[in-house]
Design a protein that fits this description.
mainly alpha, 56 residues
Length: 56
Amino acid sequence: QVKKIAQAHIDDLGQRIAAMQAMQRTLQSLVGCCKGDDRPDCPILDDLAAATPQKP
């Protein structure tokens, strides 16, 4: 029983790690696209806006 619980935690951690690594790759890609100037079209903000659900 304890081993099953521990394995479930390991599996959950693996999924969380994979999700964070995917976020890291996405952010690295977006930072690479960023010119770092005052342009109104920012790929980082555009991507964040697209991923954030709009409030009514």
